[in-house]
Amino acid sequence: MPGRFHVMQVYVAAGLAGLLAALYVVAPADRSDLLGGAVMTLIGFVVGKFTNGYAKKEAP
0.90 exceeded by the pTM? Predict the structure, then answer.
């Protein structure tokens, strides 16, 4: 089972990606590239956390 810190990282990044994706829809054209890049970065972070796995034991 992953530690609480890693689980919270995933929840926060996924929540931010969802929020930014919603803002991307209503953003003016000059801001949409910035928001799209941020969404892709956060999605990459979340996917990377799942594909790399978690440590067996979290350091104290």
Answer: no
**Which residues fall within 8 angstroms of residue 48, CB to CB, at 6 or more apart?**
none
Q: Given pLDDT bands bounded at 50, 70 and 90, which one contains residue 57?
A: low
Please tell me the distance from the alpha carbon of residue 54 to that of residue 29, in angstroms, as a whole number: 38
Question: Is 5 in contact with 56 (CB distance < 8 Å)?
Answer: no
Q: Which residues contact 55 (CB under 8 A, 6 or more apart)?
A: 2, 3, 6
Judge contact between 39 and 24, C-beta under 8 A.
yes
Q: Three-class SS of residue 29?
A: helix
